[in-house]
Structure formats: structure tokens, C-alpha cells
Design a protein that fits this description.
single chain, alpha/beta, Amidase signature (AS) enzymes, 11-stranded mixed sheet, 15 helices, 36% helix
Amino acid sequence: MNFEFLELTELRKLLDEKKVSSVELAKYFLGRIKKYQDLNAFITVTEEEAELQAKVADDYIASPGENPFLCGIPYAAKDMFLTKGIRTTAASKILDNYVPPFDSTIIAKLKEQKAVLLGKTNQDQFAHGSSGESSAYGFTLNPWDKTRMPAGSSSGSGAGVSAGLAPYALGTDTGGSIRGPASFCGVTGYKPTYGRTSRYGVISMASSMDTQGFLCLSVEDAAHIAEYISGHDPKDASTGALEVPEYHKNLQADLNGLKVGLPKEYFLEGMEPGVEKRVQEAIKQIEKLGATIVEVSLPSTHYGQMVYAIITPSEISSNLAKYDGIRFGHSTAEAKDLLEVYNKSRAEGFGDEAKRRIMTGTYVLSAGYYDAYYKRAQKIRRLLVNEFEQVFKQVDVLLTPTSPNVALKSGLAQHDPIYAYIADRLLVNCNLAGIPAISVPCGFALPADGETPSADGLPVGLQIIGPQWGEQKIFNVGYAYQQATDWHKKHPSI
């Protein structure tokens, strides 16, 4: 039996009915990871740990009582999540030999569920990027076309789920790093409200925007996983105290009475025609399901990229200061004094993109420039938040393209420092405002260059944005859409 593209409810049923064991599932997916290692979706494969965790899950399943929903089901985790006793690199050579002494809160929650960790996925270094090309461990390839990027920074998680290497994979999203790969790889990608999931034990990029979510095969899967990884964490003061709803029990396929906004600023001039066509078809489908479509405006959207490009490096500069070659991580073997230890360790360990962002952020925060750049950027960020709050008084959710284009050729972003900020222009505003969003597959389109091995083209993503703590609303719209279509059931032939 093939398990690679079964949704979580199907895997749960097979495990509960003893038609497959967790050990068999783990070995099956580990075999696929090995078979398709050319995708470079994983940095570390945890074969021994996975089999041990699977045996524990099988013993639990064999005992009387109801099984936790994720018990025995394999998953992967972006290499930003600390994993006790398992190397965690953030795809950077400065952490090449780092083995954490504790688990991140989300990994600990999945351990409580007796989920089975298959390994740590590839990514842009320290999550700096939107292509997967800044990893110190090489590019991740897109399973739909191996000459193309899977987007980033959660590149390995997106490619891994798309290729059937794991049923779901954890990711982080600071400016679109889950939703971008979801769009390019044809899977479902969920970014929660800031504070809905814990940042504790997750390597920081930009602390005021970092959110922890995942990529999976369907919105129904997303609703289940979100329940188990969300909630207040006393170790993370930024987490909200609101009770986590039972999202999967409240999924609705009927959208009657729902108001859906189309922000005109998100339908960019120059969007690839095939992408626009598929997104418009999805909007019509959602209207057929009973939703009322309303055009709205978010005039400060245009400034989002610039605000993000100032605030993000500033926070990166602060967060990466601790990697000094002394306390943990890479330490140079050739240093005459303490200053050389600092300088050489960081020069050898950090990649070009990390260095660019450190220097940019340090400049922005320096005396004489803080008021001119950082303070102004934060004021515009407040305007963005206010605009979203006002729009969500008119509508329940927003619909936009996830990306104005399909997957681009690999290598385009490697030496282009501006690429990430341009690529995420439809995504960063959600992070600046701290609101939830999900990307779902909505069809295929030929790329602008016309070069693709598939006659149908490459995946297109539809982004559904909700108000703060409005996860149930975006799940409901995504679920209704996926009940009426089968785009999320299309998978690459690899």
C-alpha cells in the first residue's frame, strides 16, 4: 500500500485499525527520503530516533483507550526547531555541530502526542530568504520541476510534503516562509496569529514577526495539527492566553453569509496571466459556495516591503549577536586573540545573506539613523495594523494570490540580495500585522518562461487571510474550497 499522499485522518484510521504499524509507516517514509535525497529536502535524517519513537507509539496504540490524534504519525521539522540530542543547524555552518540540550515547546507537544520525527528539513540559512538557496547545505529542489526553486525559507518542508517524504512538516513564517513554499510546491501552508504558537526553543529570525506553523496536504489536516501545537506557553511571554478552539470540529463547507474581501492592492500589475486566471477562478468558486465578494482597500500595502526590509534586519542584527564562537556553535581554529575568535568565527560561520542582514540592521539601529529609519518604519507598521483592523470590520476574510508567479528557475535568488523582499510582497504584511493566513493550491499555470516538463504547468496558491485569532475563519474558507475542488489532491510525478 502507498502511504505518501494519505491525509492524517486516513493514516489515523489505518493505525487505529491495526492495518499498519507506526514502525512500518516510519520505515516507509524514511525509505522515500532516501530514495528522493536528490531533492535535498533534509539536512538531518533521524532514522534511529524515528524507529524508537514509532515503537513507543505502537505500544501506546496497543494499550486500551483512545489514541492521541497524531500518535504514530511521522512528521518532519524545519531545522529552526530545537530538538534535544539531535543536531540543529538553522542551515548555517556556524551551528554545524550544535546539539541542543532541550526541545522547543512545539516539538515537546508533538512528543506528548507520540508523533514520530523523521528528520530536520533544509531551509534558507537562519530563515533569511525566499528561495531555499542561501542554505549552507545546498539548494532544495522543487518536486514539480527540479530545475526550479521550492521557495523559502521553509524550502525543505514544502518540498518534502509535496514529494510525499512526510505527511506534514513544521515550518516558520516571518515574511511568508511557509506560504511561499506551499504555493510553489502545491501544498497547504498555515501561518497562525502571532502568539498563537510558542516561539520557545525556535531559533529566532525577527522576534516580533516569527510565527511557527506547518505545511501539510489539506486544510482538514491543518485544523487538526493546529489544535495540538497551539496555546499559551509560560516560557514564551508573547503567546496569547486565549483557549485554542477545536478547529476540526467546527469546519464548515457552507459559506452562506460570509463576507470575503478582495484587497485591490494585492492584485498586482504584471502578475503572471496564468496565476491571475487561477486565482480568479478560485474566487468565483468561493462565491458559488455562498460567500459575498467585496472589493476593499489596504492603501499602506505598498509600503509593507520597505517596512519589512528595515525592521527585519534590525531584529536579525540583535538576534545573531550571540553567535560569537565562544558559547556554542562554530569556533575558528585559527585565532591569535579573543577579537580574532569573534571575527573569524562569524566570518567563517555566517553566509553572505546573514552578513548582509546583520550589517544592514546594525546600520539602521545606529545612532543618527534609528529615528530616520527604524522609528519611521514602526509608525508605518502601526498604520498597516490599523488598516487591517478596519477592513476586518467590513469583511470576515481576505482572498489574495499567494505569489504573483509560479516557481522560478533555481539560481535566480542566490546572488540577488533584493529577491526575498520582492518575492514576499504579498506575504509580509500579515507578519507585520500579526494576523493568520493560509495558502491552498488553486490550480496550475504555465511559467512566464514557458519551460516546464508538465503540460499543466506549475502549482498556484490562493492566500486566505483572517483577523487576529481568526484561524477558524480561514480554515472554514479553505476547507469549503477544498471540499468543492481537488487541486490539493494533485501530486508531482517524481
